[in-house]
C-alpha cells in the first residue's frame, strides 16, 4: 500500500506484506516505511520490520525492529 500527499503526490508512507510457503521455505514479513520531505528531498523517517522465516532443518527466525531516523 502506498500513501501519497494529495497535493504534491509525494510518497508519504509505504506498507509491504510478503508471505510465502513451500516445501523449501516459508516466510511472513511486514515492512512499513514512513518518509519525510527535507531540503526538497524525500528521506526515510522510520522503518518498521516484523518478520518470521522458516527453512527446513534450520531454526526458525523471528525478528522485529523499529528504526527511527534522526536527521
Short description:
By secondary structure, the protein is mostly beta strands.
Order of helices and strands: EEEEE
Query: Structural class of the secondary structure composition?
Result: mainly beta
**Most strands sheet:** 5 strands, antiparallel
Number of E-type strands: 5
Gap between N and C termini: 25 Å
Helical percent range?
under 10%
| Percent of sequence in beta strands | over 45%
Q: Total helix count?
A: 0
**Coarse shape:** elongated
Describe the protein in words.
The protein has 71 residues and is an all-beta fold. It is 0% helix and 69% strand. It has no helices and 5 strands. It has strands at residues 2-4, 11-21, 26-38, 41-54, 61-68. Strands 1-2-3-4-5 form a 5-stranded antiparallel beta sheet, with no helix packed on it. It is elongated and about 50 Å long. The two termini are 25 Å apart.
Main attributes of the structure:
71 residues; mainly beta
Q: What does the secondary structure layout of this molecule look like, with pairings?
A:
Elements: E1 2-4, E2 11-21, E3 26-38, E4 41-54, E5 61-68
Antiparallel strand pairs: 1-2, 2-3, 3-4, 4-5
